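Q: What changes when zinc ion is included in the input?
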Amino acid sequence: MAKYTRLTGTQDILPEEQRYWEHFRQTVAQVALDYGFDRIDLPIFEMTELFARGVGENTDIVEKEMYSFQDKGDRDITLRPEFTAGVVRAYIENGLHVQPKPVKLYSIGPAFRYERPQAGRYRQLHQYNAEIIGESGPMADLEIMLMAWDIYARLDFQGLAFQLNATGCPACRPTYIETLAAHYRARQDALCDDCLRRLEQNPLRLLDCKREACQGHIAAAPKITAHLCAECDAHFAELRGFLDDLGRPYTLNHTLVRGLDYYTKTVFEVWAEGIGAQSAVCGGGRYDGLIELIGGPATPAVGFAAGIERAVLVMKEQDVEVPALPTPPVYIAYLGDACRQYAVRLLVHLREAGLGAQIAMGGSLRSQLRHANKRDARFALIIGEDEMAADVVMVRDLHAGDQETVAQDALIATLRSRLDA
Ligand SMILES: [Zn+2]
Ligand SMILES: [Zn+2]
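A: The predicted holo structure follows.
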């Protein structure tokens, strides 16, 4: 038993797992590049106030899940529970709003939530997100949705489909929320404790209740799509028009409100076949009020975010083809201490020429070659006293299974031409 163990909700991502993570990160980076998104990296901690305001006081995240503390200077600090608030803070603080709009940004890294311990839930989790800032029209919503879709399509996820809803705007949402609250007030006696609380604090989230007993109230609830103002209605219709035209499947889901307070107009998720039933792999929406809310100029924006842990799990379960991580092609083996110095000089020579190489640290030639195979080297270079004396190297091609004796001064050219072949 180890004396120190990792904390609940954290994980070690071991070398054998890394190819899945790397493949995922590379796919996100490639799609972002193809779509014209610029990468931004942000601090993992910010002022607590930023998240309280930017994520919303009445969300589960702010109420229950934040890692908040005071630092040695008595500042209230929180480890980021999500990315969007930080992106918006950086957008305002760095004056990115003077850039030609829209500004398209993506980010990837760890986030922190104090989740109840359970399988597949992490307190240090990993996310990526993408945001389009400064464009109010539905083409930006479409672009974000297409990007989200494309990432999972390129990862070979099966059964992709959108879930789609509208959440209104400050002109139409208050009236809808009144109507929704009235519907629930009439059933007050039959509601769960969470729903009673939501009814007072955040009625939109009544539609989020997962309890069996509340599903009837949700099904009978008034739908926001029937209460949109003309602008929201036209926006939603235009977005659906694009999706129809492209033949991208979507399901209108009036219970989709997402956990965050800041969404306006569009909210969506991408669903895929995962482990078991089809479920959400990512989600997002429009947040036209957020930038102004945290002190910037009134600016429309739309974005999405997703966790990486679950995607990696799905990739493994569904045997998604993931390329092996590259390894250095050359492994230098040698016979005994007499050849060691010569071997080290050769190692440095190869590396200076730009060839990836590693060297045995000792042991019998047999165990060195076993190690070369295990490290998936393409070539084992074998040096004995005869080779040293003749200024040659034995090159064994571990993939082709042949070997040849190569003069020192022809070595790099020989290795390169075999690698290129
Ligand atoms: Zn509206
Ligand atoms: Zn409920």
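Observations recorded in class: Residues 168-169, 171-172, 228-229, 231-232 surround zinc ion (ligand 1) (CB under 6 Å).
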